[in-house]
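A favour, since you know our structure tokens better than I do. Would you make up a two-line entry for one protein for me to read? Write everything out right here, beneath this request.
=====
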Amino acid sequence: MPELIKFEIKTLPKLCVVGKQLRYSWEALESGDNRRPGFWDKCYEENIFAPLETQTEHIFDSSHVGVYLDWYLDDNDFTYIVGMLMKPGVTVPKGYVARELAETDVVVGWIKGKFASRGVDRDGPDSENGYELMVKAIKENGRDNSEMKWCMELYNCPRFTEPDENGDTIVDNYIPLD
């Protein structure tokens, strides 16, 4: 079972998530059509992080992120961006997307468990429960996230890349508060 080992509320400054975008429907995802693992693989094969990593003065965090956006649209689609968190003013490479995240209070939670090597939503046994643990902790702390416009998984090195003696790694989850 995954475990929430860190829970903190902090203010995230205005940022941009820059990367490659995948768009498809919640209905497809819920029926078993999980395109995100293959999308992560494609992003790594194309080395999409390299042009962002050269802009060192604009890097907010060098970790790779998966950000869910736009899930309240009428067509039941959502956007998933694989990329990096960058400071405003970043140059967006051709073929990439940039989405601004306004300054906001966020809950940062570290979920410890058995995850696949790239992306929580791959095939690790604990991949689906991290979000639920976060929402429960938010409510237990008297806060609300019912109107959130995005959420993010952040894959920090070495927390995510170096398993402990039990084979567990840690995925950082960011959930904005209302």
Observations:
- The domain at 3-176 is CATH 3.20.80.10 (Multidrug-efflux Transporter 1 Regulator Bmrr; Chain A).
